[in-house]
Write a sequence for this structure.
């Protein structure tokens, strides 16, 4: 006799069942056919196939197009503190396995669905864990989960001063959640007196503004791609576009670049990048410019600009996501093509190009197609040096395309 399960049921279509069977953890609103029992938003529910088979248990939310986010496909799992502690420990042990100890002080500790925490992102920047809670289910259990997270890392000897919530993102509204930010109150602990954090990545020191910086304050996913750029930069004149906190340009300078011009449209980003350069004694090698890269690239081939900045033999393109939906992919393709075409035309034969996209909607196939078109229009050929992705603390689940988002290529223009 089957034991009674404590959760209400969400019955789904054959299409939804096929998606889950293929490994994806989401059930969409259009795939729900019936609810059995009172299903609470943010609560747990069993997902049931069209023939009555148990498919998994996850968080339900009637306010979201993603009606159910699977947590487990094991009917024996009980979602108590021990379950969450095991899952946190597993995620931390994975980081310790794939990264050297010195890189664990600035890394992604939890990467949402890829770590079995749907809608939760946690980055470590020095002594601070910076969290974004983007699903109602995770919001409801954060009082249990986040103290366990701090506990697991501290037991491993990690210095964790506190957890800062960066829930000031519009995506929360799709889950029926409000935006906010501030320190998470760890039980029995005073709020840390910190407004920023110091980290070291690839031997370069940064001051991270985890309170007001983009997302969680620092883009950790390009960690090893920056090292690849550093290795190629010796003796070169480097143009670093969309520099943000200056990380690619600083890695190029540390790698022995003759000169680096780092550009960003944000004056505050440029100011922060300048401070980072000075902190590393690299301010004599790197020049900063607040400018629109789309406007700047065509001007850099003009005589006056060549006299001012010289010519470049290595260009880095690390733009923000030009598309955050399938509806805007076509216009994003035009944007990516324009900057890549301009960069290819600006480089001499034998010059080098680092180019990337951080949008999962801009698929590998589309990005490669765009690069072929840009190279053809520029009248150049591309010799591939490396094709890279995000660092391993942002693991990719092959059946969850949303986790595979960063494309990074190094080319020689020939």
């Amino acid at each position: 006799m089957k034991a009674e399960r404590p959760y209400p049921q969400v019955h789904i279509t054959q299409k939804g069942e096929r998606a889950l069977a293929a490994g994806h953890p989401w059930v969409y609103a259009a795939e729900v056919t019936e609810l059995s029992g009172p299903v609470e938003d943010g609560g747990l529910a069993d997902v049931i196939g069209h023939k009555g088979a148990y498919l998994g248990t996850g968080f339900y939310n009637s306010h979201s197009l993603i009606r159910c986010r699977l947590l487990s496909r094991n009917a024996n799992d009980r979602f108590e503190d021990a379950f969450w502690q095991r899952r946190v420990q597993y995620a931390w042990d994975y980081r310790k396995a794939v990264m050297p100890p010195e890189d664990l002080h600035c890394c992604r500790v939890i990467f949402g669905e890829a770590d079995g925490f749907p809608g939760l992102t946690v980055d470590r920047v020095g002594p601070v864990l910076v969290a974004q809670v983007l699903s109602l289910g995770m919001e409801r259990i954060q009082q249990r989960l986040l103290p366990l997270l701090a506990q697991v890392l501290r037991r491993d000897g990690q210095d964790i001063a506190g957890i800062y919530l960066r829930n000031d993102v519009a995506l929360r509204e799709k889950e029926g959640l409000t935006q906010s930010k501030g320190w998470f109150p760890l039980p029995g602990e005073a709020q840390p007196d910190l407004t920023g954090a110091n980290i070291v990545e690839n031997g370069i020191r940064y001051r991270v503004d985890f309170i007001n910086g983009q997302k969680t304050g620092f883009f950790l996913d390009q960690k090893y791609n920056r090292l690849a750029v550093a290795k190629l930069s010796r003796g070169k004149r480097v143009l670093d576009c969309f520099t943000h906190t200056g990380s690619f340009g600083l890695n190029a300078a540390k790698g022995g670049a003759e000169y680096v011009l780092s550009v960003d449209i944000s004056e505050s980003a440029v100011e922060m990048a300048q401070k980072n350069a000075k902190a590393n004694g690299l301010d004599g090698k790197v020049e900063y410019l607040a400018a629109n890269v789309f406007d700047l690239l065509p001007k850099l081939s003009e005589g006056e600009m060549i006299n001012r900045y010289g010519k470049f033999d290595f260009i880095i393109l690390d733009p923000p996501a030009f598309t955050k939906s399938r509806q805007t992919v076509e216009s994003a393709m035009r944007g990516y093509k324009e900057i890549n075409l301009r960069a290819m035309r600006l480089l001499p034969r034998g010059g080098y190009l680092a180019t990337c996209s951080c949008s999962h909607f801009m698929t590998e196939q589309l990005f490669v197609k765009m690069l072929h078109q840009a190279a053809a229009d520029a009248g150049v050929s591309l010799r591939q040096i490396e094709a890279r992705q995000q660092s391993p603390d942002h693991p990719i689940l092959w059946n969850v395309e949303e986790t595979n988002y960063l494309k990074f290529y190094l080319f020689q223009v020939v």
Observations:
- The CA atoms of residues 199 and 206 lie 5 Å apart.
